[in-house]
């Protein structure tokens, strides 16, 4: 397999914000506990999209994203109305069925989700922040993506209705079908709360568009297609032995694969052996004692933790690209006896924006 790591993605991210390198060298895996990444005023970061891949099967990633992925995922039309949302998105905003969200704008969604609620009742609210300012920024960022035609990473604010909290999220939005496709990765870990209760491999989230199984199948297919073809983030599934079973186009382009056959069935050690045959000793940002093998092993160890616990894991992992080693936020959850995962690079305008980082083994 010819390896052609996508360098434009990391270059663009680094150009806009600084890589966070404040973690101790003793461990390359860090849990995030209430991590405040940065204020809502920071500029967006452009992200380069991959070259379209051949025709794909969307069923595996469709079910993984719709029923198991512990991160809000959605699609919108050109007017900013939701055309698809996964179960996690639906639950976070306090709705019983995904169909209750479809067709709404951010303004309408926020209004419906906050009936009889005041923002003063929520924790984590910034000075002068309102529900209107929250949904207004979401829409403004959609317009930026639509007008530029480029995927972009934003630091946004959303609220967790049931927990009555306003939190920062890393959102990546990309043009899709005349509108946008997006995902939001939380910067905190909900221990025993919304995340761990929602995603279990033996009990799928029972949220659907309606009781119509055909409509639900269409929703899963549609979201799977959007995640595979439009998602500007790394998305994958693995089996119980850590071998890749599905990836989105962005991931395939990131690792320089011509199609899925170059990656499917391979382990993390297989992947890094091709990515860095001469090692990463001269890479910028390398921690003492860190190697490509230790990085791959940490990914596999985190997968095993998810499988053994049957619970979601949010963790800071290490990755490398274009001569640099850097942190990524990885969210992993049980899926089909193995795992589903999503990852985006961690960057902020100032290292002090990340607080309460703790060692996994602490």
UniProtKB/TrEMBL annotation:
Gene3D superfamilies: PAS domain. Residues 1-19 form the signal peptide. Residues 63-110 form the PAS domain. Pfam families: PAS_8. The keyword Signal applies. One of its GO terms (molecular function) is photoreceptor activity. It comes from the Eukaryota. The keyword Repeat does not apply. Keywords: Chromophore, Photoreceptor protein, Receptor, Sensory transduction, Signal. This is PAS domain.
């Amino acid at each position: 397999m010819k390896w052609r790591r996508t360098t434009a993605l990391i270059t663009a991210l680094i150009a806009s914000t600084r890589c966070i390198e404040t973690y101790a060298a003793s461990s390359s895996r860090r849990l995030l506990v209430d991590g405040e990444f940065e204020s809502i005023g920071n500029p967006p970061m452009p992200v380069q999209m991959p070259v379209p891949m051949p025709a794909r099967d969307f069923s595996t990633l469709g079910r993984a994203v719709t029923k198991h992925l512990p991160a809000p995922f959605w699609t919108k039309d050109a007017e900013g109305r939701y055309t698809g949302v996964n179960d996690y998105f639906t639950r976070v905003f306090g709705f019983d069925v995904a169909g209750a969200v479809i067709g709404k704008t951010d303004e309408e969604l926020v209004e419906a989700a906050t009936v009889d609620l005041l923002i003063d009742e929520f924790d984590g609210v910034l000075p002068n922040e309102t529900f209107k300012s929250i949904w207004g920024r979401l829409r403004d960022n959609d317009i930026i993506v639509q007008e530029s035609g480029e995927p972009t990473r934003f630091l946004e604010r959303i609220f967790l209705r049931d927990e009555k909290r306003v939190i920062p999220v890393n959102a990546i939005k990309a043009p899709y079908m005349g509108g946008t496709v997006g995902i939001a990765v939380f910067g905190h870990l909900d221990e025993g709360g919304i995340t761990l209760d929602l995603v279990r491999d033996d009990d799928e989230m029972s949220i659907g568009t309606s009781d119509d199984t055909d409509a639900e199948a269409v929703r899963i297919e549609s979201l799977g297609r959007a995640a595979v073809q439009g998602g500007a983030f790394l998305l994958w599934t693995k089996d119980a032995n850590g071998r890749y079973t599905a990836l989105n186009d962005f991931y395939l382009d990131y690792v320089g694969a011509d199609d899925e056959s170059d990656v499917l069935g391979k382990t993390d050690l297989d992947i890094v052996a091709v990515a860095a045959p001469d090692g990463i000793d001269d890479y910028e940002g390398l921690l003492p004692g860190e190697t490509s093998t230790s990085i791959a092993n940490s990914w596999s160890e985190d997968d095993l933790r998810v499988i053994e616990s049957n619970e979601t894991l949010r963790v800071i992992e290490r990755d490398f690209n274009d001569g640099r080693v850097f942190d990524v936020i990885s969210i992993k959850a049980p899926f089909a006896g193995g795992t589903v995962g999503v990852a985006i690079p961690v960057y902020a305008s100032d290292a002090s924006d990340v607080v309460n980082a703790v060692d996994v083994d602490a």
